[in-house]
Amino acid sequence: MEEYDDYDFGSASKMKMILAALDLEIRSDAVLARAVQLAVTHAAQLVLLHVIERETLSYVAGVSGRSETDLQDELKQQMLTRLEALLSETGRTRRSVCRVEFGSPHEVITRVAREISAGLIVIGPGKTQSLKEKILGSTADRVIRTAPTPVLVVRRQPVKPYIQVAVAVDFSPQSAAAAREAHKLAPDGKITLIHVDDIPLTVEQVMLRAGTSQAAMEEYRSARITKASHDLAGFALEVAGPSKTQKRNLQGVPGVVLGRLSRSSRVDLLALGPHGRNVILPTLLGSVTQRVLKEAACDVLVAGPR
């Protein structure tokens, strides 16, 4: 059993700064609405950021015959006006700042998050349209890999604060961090710790080839379930302390099970670490996290140790 940092679910600190990255396309309204709701809940300052890619600036300059310098100032002002209008429509104008910058979106978002010491980055799932994005992942994927703070990927139009929160647990420090950040994000939410036990097909095949009886295989599965239940109870006690949390042990392929869970009306938010214990490079996303980010139907919080 891993050892985790002491944490009291009953004393979650509020976030002081929230960074919302808006592409001003589809789902931007959902991202903004959720960011505003969280800023109000946490009495946090809200920074809205829109990034214009240099390639876009160069293309517009080429077809219009104007200099990039002139266009940069004009585009920046246009986007600032749009951000301020969107912000005004939500009714949130106090303690809010709008910024427009030029560059690679994920690099700018990560840099600004560090500059302002953001406690959370709120972003949309993005789209993997280009060949580069299909290879490297969407802007959201790349922000999650490099961000210095938890990242909330908004998929649903918010109608209320997060109430039903599921945290994927593999007993790693990453999932412990995800549990802590989920509670910080939704202090009034109902936290359910989810462990998915996946018996690799190769293990069962080896057992069958060795002549293992069905009764022995069932005993093996039952022992795994018992151990997982014991470990999950210990994890809950160490990470959540005496606070009441629900605990569920599920069977199956983690990415598939968590994706199905995200489509349930009983889950508002799914939280997990950027990767499990077996990832060699911390800047890589684990296969389960990648699948959840691609297929989840609810909002997803990705948070790891900092």
TrEMBL record:
It holds the Pfam family Usp. The keyword Nucleotide-binding applies. It comes from the Bacteria. GO terms for molecular function: ATP binding. Gene3D superfamilies: HUPs (3.40.50.620). Residues 16-155, 164-302 form the UspA domain. Keywords: ATP-binding, Nucleotide-binding. Belongs to the universal stress protein A family. This is Nucleotide-binding universal stress UspA family protein. The lineage of its organism: Bacteria, Pseudomonadati, Pseudomonadota, Alphaproteobacteria, Hyphomicrobiales.
